[in-house]
Amino acid sequence: MRLTQTLIPTLREAPQDAEIPSHKLMMRAGLIMKLGGGLYTFLPAGLKALRKVERIVREEMDRAGALEVLMPALQPREIWEKSGRYAVLKESMFKVKDRQQRDMVLGPTHEEVITDLVSRLISSYRQLPKTFYQIQTKFRDEIRPRFGLMRAKEFSMKDAYSFDVSWEAADISYQAMYDAYVRIFKRCGLRTKVVEADTGAMGGNFSHEFMVLAESGEDGIVECEACSYAANLERAERKAPVPKASSTDQPPTVVATPGQRTIEEVSSFLKLKPWDLIKTLIYLADGNPIAVLVAGHRDLNEHKLARILGGVSLEMADDQTIAKVTGAPVGFAGPVGLKIPIYADVELQTPRIMATGANSADSHLINVMIERDFQVTSFHDLVIAKEGDKCPRCSIRMREKRGIEVGHVFKLGTKYSQAFDAGFLDDKGTRQISIMGCYGIGVTRTLQAIIEQSFDEDGIIWPMAIAPYQVSVVVPNTGHAESVRVAEELIRDLEAKGIEVLFDDRDERPGVKFKDADLMGLPIRAVISERSLAEGKVEVKRRTEKDKQMVSVTDTVSVIQSIIQGELA
RNA sequence: CGGGGUGUAGCGCAGCCUGGUAGCGCGCCAGCCUUGGGCGUUGGAAGUCGUGGGUUCAAAUCCCACCGCCCCGACCA
């Protein structure tokens, strides 16, 4: 392809609204163009790269035995009511009406559609197991789209759904997808970290996320420095330290703490460490107030709390409720005397002398001892794990990282198959419900994550498997007819071998072409000039390397071919 | 949704405080020159100054409202 015939509008400067390296580079390299917040057009080169990701995904899904289908993005509201997710997800779904004023949504995901489909088409255990997948555009009304394709309102996703006759069989389907994901990301040139994850709005009981480690990642994760334990912060457990027990004969004593509301304020006012304070949070669980206690230096993990309480809707109590429950304005809540259920983090289980809010304005209690002065309903691991916490498996130190979630595999169970009565007759003629799994890859996000993980100060460094073109041919002086003639011949030979070549045939200064070649990041660059031809050579350089090699004109095709094969192997 | 920022040519920005002719760099078009790391030069095209309203003889500039975009947050006890 000639550069003058396609459209790759490279930019010298990054548009001001791009923040992270991969977003800036996608814009600068002319891969995408913004239409509005979270909405992007794929330009020719960007689309070529995207198609390569899709192709790898497709090949590995097919290899894993999954069946490709294509479901509607436009869906009737009813199926979302049926699964009960309309209420859960309605804020994040785009809702439209047809001309009959029927409510429709633009699908953010497809559990409902596929389960409805399977409930109609599968009736016997002989038809199972089945895994279906599609690569399709998803719509989500994100609270805050950002970072280009990383979090967009409209994006391409590969979603897959497995149906099995039993939990054991479902584990096999899950593992097959897991293994396929490992291969997909490896082929995309990505280094990923697999972590245990929270299932969130998807439901189900177990999931793994595939994370691309990156500073700009939106997810926090912890990983053990010794064993293989790694988890999303939303789920990560920690082995709680057992503090030294202490006790006092002094009863809880009220001290005035005018205007001191936050842990930082109170601890410095009382000359205590945050660790010596009990943080008391008031929540509404399905509308009923509960208290949650964590040590002052810790933050509550709402996901853990929600899981322990078992599927209730959870929200922080508003100021009025807090005032009603505690008898004090916000900032002075404490567990002593509370008449509501109290859940506490395990780190508080060892009785020791602590301080907490006094449930009355501008005052706190000191000399408070758990169990002696108040009773806890139950203890759980309730806090967000952090750097330095002990691994729940092996007790060794964990460290914190950030990651981009590019894939997520779930064991779903029967949440949807139950709702849609997606079942089958077993060999005894008994009606059973299918066990489901679901599996997603953010295709557009994966593309950008590849760049986020592979660039330098000059631009993108594409992996061979994803690069829009494998070879960039540069003729520094297009006024030199012989250079152009040799270049065109080389390109013809390369293309005859199925190699994709981008020929920079612009009448530009050499510097411009070299800068753009680096920016676009094609893996191999071939330069043909009067200078190189004087020796009968072509200069071949890999984007990943500083040094160039001089190759005789006749050997160039085979040299390039072997570089490509070597890297794709 | 809350807070902050921002909106002037395709991109990056100045001008606004102190109202009076809309400007710079890159890019684009035509020519000359040059040809191994964003070269030089001459000429040129291109902007409802986000939108609407108000103040004023006069508004990019001052005031009000709305909209878009970006960032932070959506756990405060």
Q: In total, how many beta strands?
A: 31
Which geometry do the CA atoms define? globular
Q: What is the alpha-carbon Rg in Å?
A: 29 Å
Largest sheet: 9 strands, mixed
Helicity range? 25-40%
Structural class: alpha+beta
Distinctive features:
YbaK protein, five-stranded mixed sheet, Rossmann fold, RNA-binding, nine-stranded mixed sheet, 569 residues, BirA Bifunctional Protein, domain 2, 3 domains, single chain, alpha+beta
Give a topology summary.
Blueprint: H1 21-28, E1 32-36, E2 39-42, H2 44-63, E3 67-68, E4 74-76, H3 77-83, H4 85-89, E5 94-97, E6 103-106, H5 111-121, E7 130-139, E8 154-164, H6 167-187, E9 192-196, E10 206-213, E11 219-224, E12 230-232, E13 253-256, H7 263-269, E14 278-285, E15 288-295, H8 302-309, E16 314-316, H9 319-326, E17 342-345, E18 353-357, E19 363-369, E20 378-380, E21 398-413, H10 415-419, E22 423-425, E23 431-433, E24 435-442, H11 443-452, E25 455-456, E26 459-460, E27 471-474, H12 481-496, E28 501-504, H13 510-520, E29 524-527, H14 530-534, E30 537-542, E31 548-552, H15 556-568
This protein binds one RNA strand of 77 nucleotides through residues 9, 11-19, 34, 36-37, 143-144, 146, 261-263, 266, 279-282, 299-300, 302, 316, 319, 322, 326, 328-334, 357, 474, 476-480, 508-516, 518, 527, 529-531, 539.
Summed up:
It contains 15 helices and 31 strands.
